[in-house]
Design goal:
Blueprint lengths: L1 H30 L4 E11 L3 E4 L5 E4 L2 E11 L4 E7 L2 E8 L15 E8 L2 E7 L8 E18 L6 E4 L2 E13 L4 E11 L1 E7 L8 E7 L3 E10 L1
Antiparallel strand pairs: 1-4, 1-15, 2-14, 3-6, 4-5, 5-8, 6-7, 7-9, 8-9, 9-11, 10-13, 11-12, 12-15, 13-14
InterPro entries: OMP/PagP_B-barrel, OMPW
Organism: Flavobacterium supellecticarium
Pfam family, one: OmpW
């Protein structure tokens, strides 16, 4: 009778341990990571620009700017996620060291090309690391695509018009989330967009039929700092 009692107690304890392990495993699977997170960042946009300008030569200068940025992430697993980044920026543009002597100007001139806004929605695939057991510091790397739309073009007071072709580009990133609570976190992020566009400057107001094509590389750095929420 004593052996039967001990065997029953052992079976009970074994069953309880199995049930507890199953509950722990289920909790781990459902609570170890949240599927969605959203971030709001302030982003410094720093173009690393260069240009091949026909007819008048020279180079290009594109202004830096600071913008708000919103992004959404979806986690397929606790390590793999995709991130959609939304933001728009405005930049002033001018050439540097262009030769406009053919229209009565100097041989080294900066030609004002007005301003343009960029809308570059970017989709990134990310890998998230968990180097700390408590998962407070979570770095990640990513790579993806962006499609940049150029809009609200203002040509300025020098030329008649400027046209930018929308363009497909590539992006890489690195950053980290620093958890403040189980739900809220601080984020720091660096991205590099590899982006170029064909630009056509209509300068027919300076000389009859004058059109100036250019291949422009923008290749901006995006330096972001913000806050986020998991849900």
């Amino acid at each position: 009778m004593k052996k039967i009692t001990l065997l029953a107690a052992a079976v009970f304890l074994f069953g309880a341990n199995v049930m507890q392990a199953q509950e722990t495993n289920t909790k781990y699977k459902t609570e170890d990571f949240k599927r969605w997170q959203v971030r709001l960042r302030g982003v410094g946009v720093v173009p690393n620009e260069s240009a091949d300008i026909s007819t008048i030569g020279g180079d290009v200068s594109i202004s830096n700017t600071i913008i708000p940025e919103l992004d959404f992430s979806y986690f397929f697993t606790k390590n793999f996620a995709v991130e959609l980044i939304l933001g728009t920026s405005k930049h002033d543009v001018h050439t540097v060291g262009s030769d406009i002597s053919a229209v009565g100007g100097p041989t080294k001139a900066n030609v004002d090309l007005g301003s343009v806004r960029l809308l570059p929605p970017t989709l990134m695939a990310q890998y998230h690391f968990y180097p700390m057991n408590e998962k407070v510091f979570k770095p990640y790397v990513g790579a993806g695509l962006n499609y940049t739309i150029f809009y609200d073009v203002k040509a300025g007071n020098t030329v008649k018009d400027v046209k930018y072709d929308n363009a497909l580009g590539y992006a890489v990133q690195a950053g980290f989330d620093l958890m403040v609570t189980d739900k809220f976190f601080i984020n720091a992020d660096v991205k590099r967009l590899f982006l170029k566009t064909d630009v056509t400057v209509d300068a027919s107001n300076l000389a009859d039929g004058l059109s100036i094509p250019a291949d422009v590389k923008i290749n901006p750095w995006l330096l972001g700092l913000g806050v986020g929420m998991k849900f």
